[in-house]
Design goal:
about 210 residues; alpha+beta; eight-stranded antiparallel β-sheet; 4 helices
């Protein structure tokens, strides 16, 4: 883009290079990837994305009550996604769909999205990368079986979008609707640590959603 601006300005007039330079600056800013201090608190679930918490609600997944936290990412937010917990990727399911406004209540089910199940810290959680009205590309780099660290970069959603996090009903929420959060740095909730005798959930939450 910068090279094209220089060439355009050289072949025509310097003023013609302004727009390509502005576009180049915007894309460099949009795809920024700042370093984050990752919390080390036991049982902490960090935000998978930057943005605003728009919904905290109880939903049913496979006949089990769960808590869902929804985060809206505007075009001004960092769009790099991070793993909410340390654990192993158990399931990845890409769902084709619509491109409704990411703030719509229907987008969580109807929009194009990537559904990732991670088992770690004695619990299984699910997070969704949901395309929005402008977003047309979801990137997720890890594969099933990969080990993730809490706050690790895992991909991004290009342009405005939404990220949902689905947790066990026993999770203790650390945010409220309207809060601004930062991916990898803000603690959304705390998961109770299982006792030695408590069985660890191994059934893929992504499978239960099918």
């Amino acid at each position: 883009m910068i090279a094209a601006a220089v060439l355009l300005g050289w072949l025509t007039a310097p003023a013609w290079a302004i727009l390509p330079l502005l576009l180049a600056a915007f894309f460099l800013w949009f795809f920024r990837d700042p370093e984050r201090a990752i919390p080390q608190d036991s049982g902490a679930v960090v935000s998978p994305a930057d943005g605003k918490v728009t919904d905290i609600s109880t939903i049913t997944v496979g006949n089990q009550p769960c808590q869902r936290v929804s985060i809206f990412l505007s075009v001004f937010d960092v769009h790099v996604n991070r793993s909410p917990v340390a654990g192993v990727v158990r399931d990845i399911r890409y769902q084709r769909g619509k491109f409704l406004d990411a703030r719509s209540k229907d987008c969580a089910d109807q929009n194009e999205q990537n559904i990732v199940t991670v088992e770690g810290e004695g619990r299984t959680i699910v997070f969704k990368q949901i395309a929005g009205l402008l977003a047309r590309r979801i990137v997720f780099n890890p594969k099933v079986g990969d080990r993730l660290e809490r706050g690790q970069r895992v991909g991004l959603i290009k342009f405005g979008s939404r990220t949902d996090l689905i947790l066990d009903a026993s999770a203790s929420m650390n945010v409220k609707i309207g809060d601004r959060v930062k991916g990898g740095a803000s603690i959304l909730a705390f998961l109770p640590q299982p006792s030695v005798s408590e069985p660890v959930e191994t059934v893929s939450a992504g499978e239960r959603m099918r």
